[in-house]
Amino acid sequence: MTDAPNFGFDTLQIHAGARPDPATGARQTPIYQTTAYVFRDAEHAAALFNLQEVGYIYSRLTNPTVAVLQERVATLEGGVGAVACSSGHAAQIMALFPLMGPGLNVVVSTRLYGGSITQFSQTIKRFGWEAKFVDFDDLDAVAAAIDDNTRAVFCESIANPGGYITDLDAVSAVADKAGLPLIVDNTSATPYLCNPIKHGATLVVHSLTKYLTGNGTVTGGIVVDSGKFDWSASDKFPSLSAPEPAYHGLKFHETFGPLAFTFHGIAIGLRDLGMTLNPQAAHYTLMGIETLSLRMERHVENALKIGKWLEDHDAVEAVTYAGLDSSPYKDRATRICPRGSGALFTVALKGGYDSCVKFVDSLEIFSHAANLGDARSLVIHSASTTHRQLTEEQQVAAGAAPNVVRISIGIETADDLIADLDQALTKANA
Ligand SMILES: *Cc1c(COP(=O)(O)O)cnc(C)c1O
Question: Is ligand 1 within 6 A of the CB of residue 160?
Answer without folding.
Answer: yes
